[in-house]
Each structure stands twice: as C-alpha cells, then as structure tokens.
Amino acid sequence: MTVRITKPEFNIREKLSELDIPVGNHGTQLMKSSDVAETHNLLQLKNRRKNYFINGDCRIWQRGTSNDIVNDYGCDRWWRANGVSSVDRSTDVPAYNTTGAEAFTYSMKVSSNGTGSSIGQPIELTDTGVSQFGNGKQYTLSFYAKTDSGTGDVSAVMYYRNSKFSGTNQVNWEPNHAPHLGTMNRGWQRFVYTFTAPAVNANNTILAFELSFNVTAYFTGFQLEEGPQVTPFEFTNKAEELELCRRYFQQIKPAANYMAFGVGFTYGNQGDNTSILHVKLATPMRAQPAFSYLGNLNQYYEPHANIMSSITSITLVQWDADYKQFDLQVLGTATTQKMMWIATLNNTATGLLFDAEL
Fold first, then answer.
1. Least C-beta-crowded within 10 Å: which of 95, 247, 261, 294?
2. Same domain for 294 and 233
C-alpha cells in the first residue's frame, strides 16, 4: 500500500506577520535597553534605592523637632539658608485621598521672613570627581508642598559643587537656570521637574539641590529618581533611613533625667585634672566630625568616689579610621589613674554632638 503525504502550502510572509504582536511603550523600552543594568532599572529589579535623597519623607529629626538648628541643619540631611527663620516638624501632610498614593507622617514647616528663602540637600558623590549620575541622563525631581497662607512661587536648581555653599567649580544641571516649578497654595500639590545631568568636574564632591521660595510653606515627599517619568514615592524602613542619616550626624542625648556618657580614665598628676573619655557611636561617620555639646558645662559632672567633680572643658582629641570611636579630653576636678565617666542629672537638654555633614 502506498502512503501519500501532503503538506498544505502557506505564505511565509503571512506567518511572520502573525508574530508581529504589538509590544506597547514599556515593551519597546525593554527591547531598546542597552545593558542588564538598564533592563533591571525598567523592571525595578534594583539592588539600590530609587530615591537619591535621604530622609525624603522628613521622618528623622535627630537634632530636635522645634527649630533645633545645628550648623544650618534641622530635619536630618536638609539645610536651610537665606530668609528661612525656623524649621519645625509638622503633622500637616498630604491626605491619602487627595494625593491618591502616599501616606506621610511628617512634613517640614519652613518659616520664611518674606525674602528669598532656601532649603536643600547635598547628595554625596561616589567619590571626588566621580558621579553616580550618568552624563546626559535624565533624572526626575518630585516633592509635595503647600503654603501656610496665600500663594507663593517655588523654583529649583541642581548643580555639582566642591562644597555646599561654594560656587567654585560649579557645574549646573540642565536647565542651567532655576526653573519655575509652579505656584504653591494652601492645598497640597505634587511638583515635578526633569533635569539632565552634565559631566562632573574632577574636584566636585556633591550634587547640590536647592529650592527657593519667599513664603512660609510645608514640604515632604522629596524624591530624585532616574528617568524622565515620576513614580510613587519610595517609602523605606525607618531604621534604614536613620542609619543613612547617622553617617552625617549623630548625638548621644538623655531621654530621661540621668545619662552617663562613655567610659574612660584619669591620668597624670592629680593636679592635672585631665581625663580621657572613650565614646563609641552607633554608625561609622562620613569623615572626622566636628564635636560640640548641648547645654552648659556646669550641667555635666564626673561621679567618682561619691564626689561630683566639676567639668571645665570637653574636646575631641582622637578617633579611629572608621570614625566610629572617639576619645574626648575632659578637664575638671579628678582623682589620678582612676576609671571615670561623665554624666548629667535631672536634665534632658544636654548631649554630645558629632557632625560630619557635607
């Protein structure tokens, strides 16, 4: 018996056209991605935060919540300048049913004296002259804002700098003027603008972001993300955000009526009245910090042999390579070659401050 096998004819072009399924805008972006990193970015498969700002939702206030300014900083990582008279934590935040996305806890109330007022954040670069922002790439800024009363314009600038308040070797992001982002009013709005990153100067250390306005206003939800499109605000774990803030500023502050700071020893002749106090911080700092203390020295004492020894001076003298452990020289009435520490009693307005802000 003969078996005859037949195969129907078909048009190869028609079959191929059937495979031409529309992929949409996002699919086209995926197919055009130039490397694995870009594909991961589009799919949000990233091993980094998408938000380049730290404490963008204004949750962390190590210095205090009521105009507690240390070296121009109040809310962690956010500096104030020019016509800003005070910065306070506020619970006035965008409502979920208004913004349709985020549920914030706090905002910054920034009081203006009516003249040009500024707030901003310096973003630390990967290294001096080395930027994590790609030359020619777009990055989108977004934040929520409202006024305390009336209306007020708001503008923003982005530029590379050697230091926060110096224009030496400044390289402006495009657009290189301060674009008008819109007009704030008494209702919460989200403001959005896309900037383009330039090549970094070999001496630059920061990307400086600055908002300018001239009315008392509230701000929260700051975000800077890669790409030309805005996305919902990225909420993070509070512990993670606190650790990032502590790289730049830390304090040891009593939460109750008694607090002991560090441990150390006295040395030399008894008449030297000199002690070394060893203090260990929670997080390694960015660089050698500036040291200061809160309150008056007469609020500190050295409890030794049941005697409250007066403190006349506390200065930073030594530190480890990771900027996590520090030796403080303490001058005051002391017994030689004995263990010691310093403390405060019935006072929560004291504390040791370590400041390594950019």
1. 95
2. no
